[in-house]
Write a structure and sequence with these properties.
Elements (H helix, E strand, L loop, with lengths): L1 H17 L13 H32 L12 H30 L6 H24 L5 H26 L1 H24 L4 H23 L8 H17 L1
Length: about 240
């Protein structure tokens, strides 16, 4: 299984490094392929991510003994909500920075300071995804492949948004850092198994970020998504997940 997870981690790396060459990302109306990918990501959130979040909530409830950690008992969903709020705040920060840069300097990208804050957050996000290749809920090769498919299409659209926000600095620095974060998370997973309580809290934060990014990227009104392609992707991936 370790070799399989390495191959999948390498696949995530390849997506970050080469998704810029996909010709259909800028299409308006949105291509059917991207709309179908949106359906896959939404199915992943509701059929896999939320039930897994509930499992992590049960882990915390079972293991928490000290009063200092009692906050997290039955509150994993609040942590997920905080993760969603953090990533929403980051997106607002990027948007405001781009507007200021356009007004003052006539530059169509966020400032370098905002770039580093934004990329650091996604570096941590990707690192946890790489770690969960080894220590997530996927206990079979099929489960790992479905995990890979859902996050691969999520990364493709996410890369496109980061590139739009930060332009050439993302291609020059950002995509390499995000690709490296996947391998770093995977390597940490090989060397260390983090306490399951910590993973439960981190997973909840990740879940909130995934939910926001999926809904923001996969359902963009301005790109005139193809509903039937979206529905087909959602139905097909849901069916496959239920088979597993």
């Amino acid at each position: 299984m370790t070799f399989i997870t390495f191959i999948l981690a390498a696949g995530f790396v390849a997506i970050h490094l080469f998704s810029r060459y996909l010709p259909f990302l800028d299409n308006v109306p949105r291509s059917r392929l991207l709309s179908a990918a949106g359906g896959i990501s939404v199915a992943y959130v509701f059929i896999h991510l939320l039930p897994e979040l509930n499992k992590h909530n049960e882990v915390l409830d079972r293991n928490i003994q000290s009063g200092t950690l009692k906050f997290f008992e039955n509150h994993t969903y609040i942590v997920a909500m905080l993760g969603l709020a953090v990533f929403y705040g980051l997106e607002r920060m990027v948007k405001i920075s781009k507007q200021k840069q356009q007004e003052k300097n006539h530059i169509d990208r966020a400032s370098k300071g905002v770039f580093w804050i934004h990329i650091t957050s996604f570096f941590l996000y990707n690192g946890l995804i790489g770690y969960l290749l080894l220590h997530g809920e996927q206990e079979s090769i099929k489960g790992l492949i479905f995990y890979f498919i859902a996050l691969a299409v999520h990364f493709i659209t996410g890369d496109h948004t980061l590139r739009e926000a930060h332009k050439e600095i993302y291609d020059r620095i950002g995509r390499w850092l995000l690709a490296g974060a996947i391998l770093a998370g995977w390597a940490i997973g090989i060397m260390v198994k983090v306490n399951e309580n910590i993973i439960a809290v981190l997973f909840a934060l990740l879940a909130g970020g995934v939910i926001l990014n999926v809904m923001k990227e996969e359902l963009p009104e301005e790109r005139e998504s193809n509903f039937w392609a979206f529905a087909a992707g959602l139905a097909a991936y849901t069916f496959l997940l239920l088979l597993v």
